[in-house]
Amino acid sequence: MQTKKYLWVHIPILTTMAALTIHSTQAVESHSYSTTSGQYPVPVSNLAKPSDIVIQSKNSQFSQNYPRQYQSWYKTSESTDVVPALEEDPRLIVLWGGYGFSKEYNKPRGHFYTVTDVRNILRTGAPMTPTEGPMPMACWTCKGPDVPRLIAEWGEKDFFSGKWAKAGNQIVNSVGCADCHDTTSKDFEEGKPALRIARPHVLRALDVIGKNFNQMDTTDKRTAICANCHVEYYFDKNGVNNVVFPWFNGLSVDDMEKFYDNIQFSDWTHSLSKAPMLKAQHPDFETWSMGIHGKNGVSCVDCHMPKVQGADGKVYTDHNVGNPFNNFQNTCANCHTQKKETLQNIVESRKQNIKEVMLKLEDQLVHAHFEAKAAWDAGATKEEMQPALTAIRHAQWRWDYAAATHGGYMHAPDVILKVLGTGLDRVATARADLATILAEHHVKTPVPIPDISTANAAWKAMGIDIQKARAEKAKFLKEIVPEWNKEAISKGLIDTPPPAH
């Protein structure tokens, strides 16, 4: 029997509300945690309670007093293209086998569509009641200012408890003003930024890495605001599926992997290999912090939300978050002397180099998953398979970390290439182990790979009834979402529904 250690855990919470800390006991398995910070995920009893924080979540109410900022934010609606990544690269359907991402994954588009896209994606299923569906409430966490509003009203425990559909009629404003600003403050009224993080789990994560939000200067606050969403995170199954950032050992791919391994966390079990898998989210803050821009104090805002001059000569912050090259003179040209085309060619070259290595790793992982399945089918034991499955887990975590990082080829191309290189090393170990197991069980090699040349072929190979999933989603969008919109309008949360597509 393994013993437990009972530790006093110091957990700073709600630092924007009060300079308070809570000390509590938390039972921690002796083998489960090893963190350099000495801190651990907050227990359910210490999640933030309902508070008096006021979040004005209705984005349209700021259009008159802040027309330049609002109109530039509204331009994110021009990012209309839905690019289906699975159809561009069907290997992903295999890599995410058994997980919702294998049904649909689209490349990101403008902030204006955050609510629309999470409603429409097949991953959230087709819940016809508030208690149905595959996904928890945490799937709303980055989608808009109604999230911190509800956390303030309900508290974290009640917010994160239950299914995603529970808040479908409440979370209706896409990422906007109150996600980043204290819109009720005197500073905001006077036209100052009044930057605020109102999601308690983000404040806790920043505290873990020694970055108290209230003590930051404006430049650091601007970047920390982006860490509301553009980070790696997981849903704490020992809690109430509340969001936690795995930063307790550090921000690198190895640091976070160590944390996940030590708490024996997995997002899902792969349908072919049975490996306990990790799904990277979008570790942009982490990658940026390790890259040349982060190390030199170039913030997210400098490149993605620069100061611009309007037709009336007034300077304001452009809220049309997008590619810095689209606003070159106000972004890159502030530091770089090269021509736009020169820098674009450099970035494109780095992107292609990373893509080539990434595809090689994908191919190796596809083979590893099918080889593991063949080993299981031949009678391999858990003891035999464990080293290979761990290597698959670590290899795909590195691939996913690199693939899910928005703009890694710009933020830190050297870091991304190293991550992919170590991923290739680990998948080579996995396949070598599997080759030995397959030989011992008299399995003929090479293990055949079914046709996955198209998304439809890959869905078939993985046993996914994509037409059924799409039909169920269509019914949900037709019958349930209009009711959500009607309720939200009646409550005054929005004036018009989020776009349907």
Secondary structure: number of strands: 8
Query: How much helical structure, as a percent, in the residues?
Result: 40-55%
Q: What is the CATH superfamily of the domain at 55-229 and 299-321 and 466-495? A: Flavocytochrome C3, Chain A
| Largest sheet report | 2 strands, antiparallel
CATH topology of the domain at 55-229 and 299-321 and 466-495, which one? Flavocytochrome C3, Chain A, domain 2
Give Rg in angstroms: 23 Å
Signal peptide: 1-27
GO molecular function: calcium ion binding; heme binding; iron ion binding; nitrite reductase (cytochrome, ammonia-forming) activity
Protein name: Cytochrome c-552
Pathway: Nitrogen metabolism; nitrate reduction (assimilation)
Describe this structure in words.
The chain has helices at 67-74, 85-88, 91-95, 114-120, 146-154, 156-160, 186-189, 200-208, 218-226, 253-262, 284-290, 292-295, 300-304, 340-377, 382-404, 408-411, 413-440, 455-461, 466-479, 481-490, and strands at 4-12, 21-29, 234-236, 242-244, 268-269, 276-277, 307-309, 315-317. The strands form 4 sheets. The chain has a two-stranded antiparallel ribbon with strand order 1-2. Strands 3-4 form a two-stranded antiparallel sheet. The chain starts with a strand and ends in an 11-residue tail after the last helix. 42% of the residues are buried. With 501 residues, the chain is mainly α. Helices cover 42% and strands 7% of the residues. A hairpin with a 5-residue loop joins strand 3 (234-236) and strand 4. It has a domain at 55-229 and 299-321 and 466-495: Orthogonal Bundle (Flavocytochrome C3, Chain A, domain 2). It is globular. It has 20 helices and 8 strands.
